[in-house]
Structures are given as structure tokens and as C-alpha cells.
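Supplementary Methods S3. Input chains for the assembly prediction are listed below.
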Amino acid sequence: EDQVTQSPEALRLQEGESSSLNCSYTVSGLRGLFWYRQDPGKGPEFLFTLYSAGEEKEKERLKATLTKKESFLHITAPKPEDSATYLCAVHRGNDYKLSFGAGTTVTVRA
Amino acid sequence: DTEVTQTPKHLVMGMTNKKSLKCEQHMGHRAMYWYKQKAKKPPELMFVYSYEKLSINESVPSRFSPECPNSSLLNLHLHALQPEDSALYLCASSQDELPGGNTIYFGEGSWLTVV
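Predicted C-alpha cells for the full assembly:
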């Protein structure tokens, strides 16, 4: 059975204090790993798709990386507006179903 | 900005009411989804439509009835719901290309409260 585990559950950062979120996964036939950002009461906002080990993608202060067993979402010099829950999800084979992790809630204080 | 549009944003309904949630996308995607999300939990898949045909039903109770009138529209008809069905209902879409790995884009969601 696919497993996606995110850590930590919650992360409190000072503005400008860089950190990383972890997403470890066990899935056969990984077809894609996805990162989403979700603000309270809103739908998940797509951030990145990673397909193969070694791949990296960046967007503003966020950088996502992928290995064969885990993915990291690095937040560089975060700002209060980066506060959100970050969700990791994996997609395997020809299955439509995304397997989500429980999320990491990031709070950035000014 | 999300290109998956959901209406209404908020809905309060009684247990004997019939209501519908609506979703529209104009990205040319041929796979559309309904997800349910409870507070502080990740989204859970309910239904998948592929090329306007129901492809997956994740054992969802029959009080939830999906409909895909065309490739851009997706509805979720609600009838005789229970208070525990109160949640954020998310519509999503993706390209429908095999093998998988197609990015799924979510709408803003419809907050449903059953009283």
C-alpha cells in the first residue's frame, strides 16, 4: 500500500529563517510527486510536479527536490505570506488516485 | 489563479434538502474529480470522470450523485445528507494521458454545512 509521510506536522519560523519540509514515500511505479500549498478554507494550490530522482524545481522562495525515497520543500528566507499548509502527494502507475500526506502547517512570524 | 471554478462557495442545507455543487474548467482537461476534505485532513477522492464517463467511485454513499454534462462541467447532486457530510468539497481536473503523473488542479472548494 502506498504511504506518504510528511514531517514535521507543524513548523514555526521567524521571518527570514530558512527551513525544509520532508515528504517520504513508499510507492511502486511512481509517476509523479506533487507539492501543493493550501490556505485555510481554500482549495490546494499547485506548486510543483517532480517526476524523477535528482529533479529540482524552484518558484520564488520555494525549491522542491526529489530522491528515490523522499522529497524536500525548501523555504528560503520565508515571509509571513508563506504561512500555509503544504501538502505532498504521489501518483503511481495508471491510477487516477493521488495519495496525500497529512501536510505540514508552516507559520512564519514577522 | 485557479482555473477550476466552483459554485457556490458556501452552502447550508437541511437533511431533507436537495442541492447541487457545480464545477467548471476551461483548460481542455478530460479528467475531472470530486474530493472531500474534512478539517485538518488531506483531501479524499470521491469520484473521477474520464472523457465524461464515470471512471472511479470510491464507494461513496448514493446520497452523493455526480454528473458530467460535458467536458467542461461537473456537478455533484446532494440529497438526504447527514451532518457528518459537512466538509469542503473540492473539484479538480487534469489532462487524461497515460501513464499517470498528470498534474491535478483544484478549485477553491465549496463549503458545505448540513444542519
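The mean pLDDT of chain B is 93. Chain B touches chain A at residues 2, 4, 6, 31, 33, 41-43, 45, 48, 50, 55-56, 88, 90, 92, 98-109, 111 (CB under 8 Å).
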